[in-house]
Write the structure tokens for this entry.
Amino acid sequence: LSLCSRTVEPLEYYRRFLKENCRPDGRELGEFRTTTFFFSGSITTADGSALVKLGNTTVICGVKAELAAPAVDSANKGYIVPNVELPSLCAERFRSGPPGEEAQAASQFIADVIENSQMIVKEDLCIANGKLAWVLYCDIICLDYDGNLLDASVFALLAALKNVHLPLVTINEETGLSEVNLKQKNPLIIRKHPVATSFAIFDDTLLIVDPTAEEEDLATGTVTIVTDEEGKLCSVHKPGGSPLTGAKLQDCITRAITRHKEVKKLIDKVIKSITPK
């Protein structure tokens, strides 16, 4: 299989591998790339941060917590504001300037995952009903794009949120002003641990997990399944492309539940290794 055929006829080149149930990078069709997490001090100015590598795809997430008044119609709720950035440095296809369509779609996907999974309940971010609440700005920046942005982004978000410790805040009844105790910090309450598992669909029928950028470009569709630790389905993200039969979708969900266990185990292991004894 010459490099020439990969350049001239990339799809045919891939099909020859897929017939043998493997991929050009040596992985089997159902095999994920090596996943690595880096927590402590990824971003020193953030209240929580994590860097995730999924093969070559590298994503960093920083969470910044600020105080604000709750919205009038949600007096007992705080805010979570996710934002995904795809700067020009991460791949040739992206340009500097306002967020493009892909970055906007990824930001919306992350917002939906937070909402649907209830990983953070907004009521938990309220400090004083109608007066004060936390705002969590979750900035997810792709440093190196080689496919499967959504899985890496959800991993980085979850890992960064598990790294967040918020200071104790009270409201002085006499002055009405907020008082922040930086010496007493508590971890953020994370109710659910969503994990995303993405698949590329080849020739309308064949499913491969954790696609690279090249595989995404050649695929006839993609689908992302998000599950929590109880095996519950939080969301199915399928932006057009090849339709999936019920059986194929169920296969994706089953694989996603298995993947969730692997990722959760990996995050817990890393957190345990950096927690002071």
